[in-house]
Please model this.
Amino acid sequence: MTSYWLSEPAPPRREVRVDDPEVVVVGAGVTGCAAALRLAEAGKRVRLYDGRAVAEGASGRNGGFALRGMPAAFDVTAESVGEETARAMMVWTERAIDTIESLAGDSFRRVGSLRLAVDEEERDELRTEYEALVAAGFAAAWIESFEPPLEGRFAAALRHPPDGVLQPARWVRRLAALAAEAGVELREHSRVASLEELGGATVVVCTDGYPSGLLGEIEGLIIPTRGQVIATEPVPERFFEVPHYGRHGFDYWHQTEDGRIVAGGFRDVSFDTEFTADEHLTDPVQNALHRFVNDLMGRELRVDYAWAGIFGMVMDFLPVVGRVPELDDVWVAGGYSGHGNVLGFACGELVAAALLGKDVPLMAQFDPVRLLNIG
Ligand SMILES: Cc1cc2nc3c(=O)[nH]c(=O)nc-3n(C[C@H](O)[C@H](O)[C@H](O)COP(=O)(O)OP(=O)(O)OC[C@H]3O[C@@H](n4cnc5c(N)ncnc54)[C@H](O)[C@@H]3O)c2cc1C
Model:
């Protein structure tokens, strides 16, 4: 049950105390750390709480893919929000990757990503997205021939050159250290049980799929969803430098710098059981992941790490950022539908900008009120 990423020791961090905070951020993952950092840089007195330690939620348990865009494909997003808005969202997330690269040091590698089609139907979908990306002026490449071990398995692939791969726990711990340097007090292992205990400060809830109990009417509408991951023994040959994902993102894998195959997904072998906030591993998903990796590599690999984490699913595949309906001075940023490494960072910055009174036009699309309508 240990995340490979979190097994690396956390580096020391500056100890800060903030009396009488103006803003309390709940959740010390990528979103909360980014929001707290930007608010403190702007001169706010900020305290950041987490029931666990920094990055011990999904931010230290994920696949490590740093992907541009929204959770849905670019053309699908354009259909739902309009071409111009979808384009603005894409540019915004590409800039967020640039910022991540400038802050993340050795926890980020800009290697691109490879979105694979397992059959002709998925190939057609990817081709439509590829054409929409190119027409809108975004970098993208179309691939139809593969080297082993991908050869013969996939119909085509769409390469996203601006993407990259993270050691996500190392990255978010680094972000927390930057926040502390900027003056944020971090209170780890301190679960916030109610808004009343926060003494009237502005509250920003950054808990994505983990039920916080702080979101009033919209509590539960960012649906807790379990993702499971394995990391194998190190493999000497290098096959998967780039994050790979196929079957609409239900399978994803890449190779760490020390050669391990990190693979996640296969929620669809047991859909109903995976809509949960329980981090236990299950045999059907774990066995499917192990079988998949062994089949891909053509030999039996030992699993050294296996873990689960919870992400927040939203039925329209757009994040949820803004004021929480019916609550006084409570804000939320979350609901990335399994796509939160870049979006979480960008939405943490976005909610901070809104709190600082800046003009943030994209937020209209992310308004939490809409959850009351889509259920
Ligand atoms: C298995 C898995 C694989 C994934 N793979 C990818 C991927 O490859 N690429 C990608 O982009 N995204 C991926 N995601 C999604 C991504 O990890 C998340 O969307 C992102 O990390 C969310 O960050 P966050 O800071 O918003 O929330 P989290 O990192 O989940 O942090 C929320 C924190 O809130 C705390 N909390 C909750 N309630 C309270 C309370 N009342 N008081 C105090 N603390 C509280 C929790 O302890 C937790 O630490 C994956 C997610 C999972 C689970």
In short: Helices lie at 30-41, 74-81, 83-104, 120-135, 168-181, 283-297, 340-355, 371-374. The longest strand covers residues 223-234.
